[in-house]
Amino acid sequence: MEKGTEEYEFEKKLLKRVENDKAIIQVDSPADTNERNLTLTKHDTIRNLIVICVSFVFLFSAFCSFASLQSSLNKEEGLGTTGQAVLYAAMVLSSLLLTSVTMSKISQKWIMVVSMFTYLIFVATGFYPSWYTIMPASVLIGIGAAHLWSAVQTYITDLAKHYAFLTGTEFQDRLNLFLGILYAFMY
Fold first, then answer.
1. Which helix (H) or strand (E) holds 16?
2. Is the CA virtual torsion 103, 109, 110, 115 positive or negative?
3. Do residues 165 and 22 touch, judged by C-beta distance below 8 A?
4. Which of 14, 57, 94, 134 is a Cys-bridge partner for 143, taking CB atoms 3.0 to 4.6 Å apart?
């Protein structure tokens, strides 16, 4: 896709001004139908990407370790494995039914913060594992996980669009790079 003949969809929302390595872009405000302006430099965009990546490292280091131990630590009546099954069932259902509604009403940053908190609640059930703590926490994290993955993908796509505009590079190249950086941190 050439920039001269076909504009990217996101460029339709850009204001006509670029100053000192800053671009002012208009994005749809999830809270209402008005638009708000964001001013990010290339440095700010990369910083936001790195903050998300480091946050995911810490979050998933704790979660993956805890989730791996669930079936071993909570063997009574299959509590650990049932909790994991409920978690992923809730994630699938909320991905299909809830995320499209909530993603349009709440900003990606707030969705990521609240969703990360659901992971902390789930890990905290390790202090008092029972059916009354693990099952509700599994449902909660399933809902949170569906929203977290949708929000992080959307937010990184927005960062890549903005960075591509600032640097005059192809959006798809920046998106592949940014997602590659995220997954390099995670795995």
1. strand 14-19
2. positive
3. no
4. 94
Q: What is the DSSP string of 19-30?
A: ETTEEEEEEE-T
**Sheet of strand 14-19: strand arrangement:** 14-19, 22-28, 35-41
What pTM does this model have?
A: 0.76
Kindly tell me if the per-residue pLDDT of 11 is higher than 90. Answer: no
Q: Where are the domains of the chain?
A: 13-186
Residue 47 CB: number of other CB atoms within 10 A?
12
DSSP, res 126 = G
Q: Hey, what amino acid is at 7? A: E
Tokens at 91, concatenated: 């994630």
In this prediction, residues 41-57 reach a mean pLDDT of: 93
The one-letter amino acid code at 181 reads: I
Alpha helices in the chain (DSSP H): 42-73, 79-97, 99-103, 108-124, 131-167, 171-186
**SS3 assignment, position 41:** strand
Tokens at residue 95, please? 């991905």
User: How far separated are the first and last CA of the chain, in Å rounded?
Assistant: 32
